[in-house]
Amino acid sequence: MFFSLTDHFLIRASAALEKLKLLCGEEKKCSNPSNLLELYTQAILDMTYFEENKLVDEDFPEDSSQKVKELITFLSEPEILVKENNMYPKHCDLLGDELLECLSWRRGALLYMYCHSLTKRREWLTRKSGLLKEYLVDGISYLLQMLNYRCPTQLDEGVSFQDLDTAKLLSEGIFSDIHLLAMMYSGEMCYWGLKHCADQQPENQGMDAGVSGASCTTHREPLDFREVGEKILKKYVSVCEGPLKEQEWNTTNAKQILNFFQHRSNS
């Protein structure tokens, strides 16, 4: 019998939930809150990944907004659980930086993919550009949040590195390929925002409104698409053509977007 990749994630989620059920049945003193939350979070990550893949494979059907909202809500639950129960002063003390990064990345990447699909629908854009702006602001916020959980490594005499390029990456707060993708995704979303809805106000209508979860404010702060996008894409290009030059990361799209930002600032 052959299983698809998505089947694998459902099986893994089921196993995590079974283990969680067993641990919850044990005496309280034997249960570590951190372990329980980690299992719960992993199950959510796996189950939502399965659902996300279905949406991506179908290129986000017209009625996807409610499903996207539900997935964002599910991916926000671990942080909400910690916050509502006052389990720890800081989320990272219980969830850990890597899980927090993963939760923010998954929400931001989902909104990136959804917005990418929406920008190809001209008729929808003419009617709903304000709603697109709402999704973009939330998505960018999640991705920037993901990039800011861990502080850049300070390069000083007390820290020794054999690889200077690695040291430069860590000093820029780039700890993995996903961090680079988050930078590029953020820049692209800023480009879409400036191109399609620079003059629009975010909508707040019925089922479509409010995809944000625990980590994005209910009342959105104004976001300067050009300023944010320009800053993060300049950093992306600098890193890709500097420490990561040998890995041949593509910077063509990033440079084209930067040119677009430059023309908009001069107009």
From TrEMBL:
One of its GO terms (biological process) is mitophagy. It comes from the Eukaryota. This is CE051 protein. InterPro entries: RIMC1. The lineage of its organism: Eukaryota, Metazoa, Chordata, Craniata, Vertebrata.
